[in-house]
Fold this protein.
Amino acid sequence: MSVPKRNHIVNILQEFSIPLLAGAAVAMLAANFAGTWYRDALHWMPFGHVSLFGHGVTLHFLVNDLFMVFFFGIAAKEITEACLPGGSLNPVAKAINPLLATLGGVVGPALVFFAGLWLLFEVGVYSPESHDWSKLQRGWGVPTATDIALAWLVARAVFGKGHPAVDFLLLLAVADDAIGLAIIAVFYGDPALPLRPEFLGLVLAGMAVAWALRRSRVKSWVPYIAIGGPLVWSGLVLAHLHPALALVFVVPFLPGPRRDIGLFSAQDEVDRLGPALAEDLHIEHSPLHRFESRMKLFVDFGLFFFAFANAGVPLTRIGPLTWVILGSLVVGKTLGVSALGLLAIRMGFPLPSRMGIAELVMAGFVAALGLTVALFVASAAFTDTALLGQAKMGALLSGFVGLAAIAVGRALGMTQRREAPSPAPDPSAAAASSAWQATPRE
């Protein structure tokens, strides 16, 4: 197999999130047909009886507490780049509509979640005494999540590549997951292990190291991650906060390009501007970009193991919390995003061109794809095995939203709602404009 063909196959596997989906499928088969083996696999200790700060280094620990550090690091990179000049969060005014819609995509599912619990356990078929409310209500953060990669994939299938609704949904998903990170950090500490704020000094030390490296104009991303990362990770573990968020505190210090290059278009941007201008703007060689380019393959294929370690739920675990989570994602996201998006319009912050009310509602529906982050939040929210299984099933079933969205989108002809393309701008003028708008960064 030639190298270009092999690279093409790898790109397809990454673009369509095949490792993640395959890991989920293998986990479900294992949990339902080889349950004992699956449980033993999750508790396997590949390095023997080694522990880190009292945590046994099992497969589950390696995936959720170490590997996911890099997953959330990539998410932090997207948020950091969106704040650059030309990015979707800079200036803030042009992002008001999707950001308000994001708020709706968090508040809406949370409200539907509590309404669902009340309907099922107060006026429904389940008695309030059948479950501990203090445990049940911890699941409110699970349906607030949106899977960035799957939402992007489905949005391109629904709206068509290049449609502004795709960028709208990407911004919503990135901001959504930024809020999700805060929810995990603030609300989902282990109740049996109270916060130890004195160890947060290690988090500040890691950030200080990253800041000092930036001030010293260190051009390699490795020292930032290799020195600052372990300091922050150790501080979070000892403070009894989730250590998977470690790189969220480090990645924003990585020197980035002088302007945003888009979520999935780094090479396209280099090709469009030309090597000379791209180098002048530090697009091709910025530590922020090289961190992602070096780690993204590892993260995308590592999601197989994340899904394997988290998506294995026996079908017998389907219960009332499953339907509350799924309903909160589908109903809460769709209504929340649509309502706050319409409110933003009334406030004078319009939707992007070629995006109407139908596209706004569809974007809210696609945002109900919670899968990856929803599984992670569920693992942080619940220690009760039965409730955890029910919550994970709700997150897994949200994957069918993608199929439904594609079918409805094609039935409504959304991919055909396109205006005639505008005349291509003069490349030299575009390059000059980009260079003029670029703001120097340290």
Remarks:
- The chain has one domain: 3-417.
- The longest helix spans residues 320-346.
